[in-house]
Amino acid sequence: MYAQSVNDPETFWSREAARLDWVRPFTRVKNTSFVPGKVNIEWFGDGTLNVAANCIDRHLVDKADTTAIIWVPDDPDAPAQHITYRDLFENVGRMANVLKGLNVKRGDRVILYMPMVPEAAYAMLACARIGAIHSVVFAGFSPDSLGARVNGSGAKLVVTTDYAPRGGRKTALKSNTDAALLHCDDDVEVLVVKRTGEQISWVEGRDHDYNALAAAVSPYCTPAEMNAEDPLFILYTSGSTGQPKGVVHTTGGYLVYAAMTHEYSFDYQPGEVYWCTADVGWVTGHSYLVYGPLANGATTLMFEGIPTYPDASRTWQIVQDHNVAIYYTAPTAIRALMAHGNAPVEGYDLSSLRILGTVGEPINPEAWNWFNEVIGKGTCPIVDTWWQTETGGHLITPLPGATPTKPGSATLPFFGVQPVILDPTSGAEQTDVVAEGVLCIKDSWPGQMRTIWGDHARFEKTYFSDYKGYYFTGDGCRRDEDGYYWITGRVDDVINVSGHRMGTAEVESALVAHPSVAETAVVGYPHAIKGQGIYAYVTLMNGETPSEDLRKDLIRWVRAEIGPIATPDLIQWAPGLPKTRSGKIMRRILRKIAENDYGALGDTSTLADPSVVDDLIENRMNRG
Ligand code: 6R9
């Protein structure tokens, strides 16, 4: 199959695309070019279909009473909800009619600032049903981040909840939305889904009560006939420079790829309960919590809470209660659970588990072994899936049971994917089996992003200009003697904190916006649970003195500017930063000091003032 997928992609992909219901079948399969200046990606270009109809309507024939979504609320004493495909059809239909009533039309952007509640999935599918483009904003993001995404996407509506319970606490999403909209056009409206029912502020005329509106509309909504290349969603993700970019995924190719990878990478079998722990705010929540599983008629479990609430056995309680067969999570979650020892796992019946999966960052062998032995009892294949927001679905992954695994390697390319390892400086393709360099992909696959929202030039520059003719992933990679791929981490200024992508430039611009901060440089450093932690070097304004209070204030500041995921772990007061004579900050040196590896600083002779380095080493924060 792999040979056919790369030698005869037309035949291969037209067969795979037949897994979906098309309104008008496509006659063209692939029309793609990575040539600089002419980058164009189009799959199944003249076909038409509707994503919601594929994820819901077509299953009603034989799965109307099958559970589509098992929703497990944060509160361990509250009952789980079983939402059948018929329920899903009606709830999505209602949400779609509510959106239409609010004048949302084909092509309009709708921001979903939603926590892990079923209405998040309803809203995604409702947008897809009427041809609107959703952009989910992770509920942990601050009002400023939300406002930037409303403006960046030109959205006319924000769908949110009153509150978002999580881990026994709650976030005030509606009041965050109010704060965000202070920075947006006056005509942006808000649709509020009731989650807790507690009191919230209300702007008459602008705010709409979802529950009241939904009760008054029909559950039937005709799906819009969309072109395969019409945008399905925008998802903002961090890059090495500037503001987050709006990754655009389209209708046909994305859904073919999400459905196919969900089936093959997890060997999904009808009737099985599948649990992906990712939040809907990230791409994994799009492809592997909502779209892939529902396109396949699967039962997907959505958990509102966190693995350690009310205690570290919550995950295993859920696996036992709901007979979870496939469990897909992030290495950082595995490490956090592993830190509690085996006691929270003991006493739970995990025999329903068949396949385990990881995503988001390389998994360290210690965590892999614990996952394999203590959770999988040595009998569940572990699929380490490498992919990105930009790729729409898995690109490098084992096929469970078929691909022998090695702890820490995502193993081999998925069908249709041709990874190459390039020399970082010359850009030459490394043709020996054993190789190390930057990871690029040679040809397109259907789930590939199509553009950056509103900025096709930035799309070409970011992904297709450094290494001409290839898609550049931003990751470093090693290929071993068996042809297995080992991701070595980002080669750009993007760090990976608890499996979340964070641009160091974003944290820096938040910090320098603080009145006491003159200059700052942010780097990643190894962190036992998070994978990478955030290390900030801060130079204060003249006259400001370092203090514990100021440190706390800076941390609060960054949390408010971006969100809790960007919280610096370590802040070092830096009287000066190491710079070249042309004023460029030498991040390589700062990274080494943050890693506590200052013995290997390399050449510092090009520094304008080499003495700043001694001070930074002397006062380094990570002595672990
Ligand atoms: C799906 C997702 C993408 C970046 C990617 C890489 C890292 C993801 C990985 C992995 C090693 C894996 N990454 N999966 N590294 N092994 N299995 O995480 O998307 O948030 O866009 O992050 O995450 O560095 O470039 P996204």
Question: What's this, in brief?
Answer:
Among the domains are: 74-224, Rossmann fold (3-Layer(aba) Sandwich); 498-619, 2-Layer Sandwich (GMP Synthetase, Chain A, domain 3), CATH 3.30.300. The chain is 29% helix and 24% strand.
**Count of helical regions:** 19
Helix content: 25-40%
> What distance lies between the first and last C-alpha atoms, to the nearest angstrom?
48 Å
Spans of at least 5 consecutive residues with low confidence: none
Quaternary form: single chain
Description:
The protein has 19 helices and 30 strands. By secondary structure, it is of the alpha/beta class. Among the domains are: 74-224, Rossmann fold, CATH 3.40.50; 498-619, GMP Synthetase, Chain A, domain 3, CATH 3.30.300.30. The strands form 9 sheets. It has a 7-stranded mixed beta sheet with strand order 5-4-17-16-18-19-20, with helices on both faces. A 5-stranded parallel beta sheet has the order 7-6-8-11-12, sandwiched between helices. Helix 7 packs across helix 8. The mean pLDDT is 96. The structure holds ligand 6R9. The site of ligand 6R9 has 22 residues, from helix 11, strand 20, strand 24 and strand 25. Residues 506-584 form the AMP-binding enzyme C-terminal domain. The modification N6-acetyllysine is found at residue 584.
